[in-house]
Amino acid sequence: MEPNPVIIAATAKQTASLIFLHGLGDTGHGWASTIAAIRGPHIKVICPTASTMPVTLNAGFRMPSWFDLRTLDATAPEDEEGILRATDLIHGMIEDEIKSGIPITRILLGGFSQGGALALHAALTYPDTLAGVMSLSCWLPRHAHFPGAVKSPTILPIFQAHGDCDPVVPFKWGQMTASFLKTFMKNIEFNTYQGLTHSSSEEELKDMKIFIERMLPAVF
């Protein structure tokens, strides 16, 4: 992970934190202003940038990536070591927020595509109750290790969102991930966006805003 995440400070007294992870080839700047526009004034937004590495899926070209992507095939071998290393980094970011005085129940994780996959994996393997996780246009990495690898309480709020015309991460993957999660997690919301490709939309952002307001309400 790059040393300086994009941080957008709370505009009122900070009582919550939102860590959002970008997709393959992007940086923390890619989502920071979008997320800042849908959060409450009491929420600090943290958007880290993944380290640059060669990505097998893209013919070994170097780009920001949370872990190596070898193929977009649900049954293919994954970069398990890289996924676990990246998960540890995100857990470290959560710990930093706790040390700064933010309770774990006031920390929300989120991400898009590869970042959404990492956010989901990090939330499920964190041994305490986060405010929730937003996983956009993504899948569950290391799925064969679940539910055994789950350390979070089963009540962890999970917001999943996927466009039904996604040509990169197939909509079917999102559906299969949600169906699988529902076999061992109790609090899952799966949102479908008609005609949406591998991106976001106003409708999705509106639903994310509602989820953020519900999970991280203002505290007086």
Provide a descriptive summary of the structure in words:
With 220 residues, the protein is of the alpha/beta class. It has a single domain (5-216), classed as Rossmann fold. 29% of the residues lie in helices and 20% in strands. The protein is built from five helices and nine strands. It has helices at residues 29-36, 80-99, 114-124, 171-181, 202-215, and strands at 6-8, 16-21, 43-47, 52-55, 61-64, 107-112, 132-136, 158-163, 188-193. A seven-stranded mixed beta sheet has the order 1-3-2-6-7-8-9, sandwiched between helices. Helix 3 links the parallel strand 6 and strand 7. Helix 2 packs across helix 3 (114-124). The longest helix is centred in the middle third of the chain and has 20 residues, at 80-99. It is globular. The N and C termini lie far apart (35 Å).
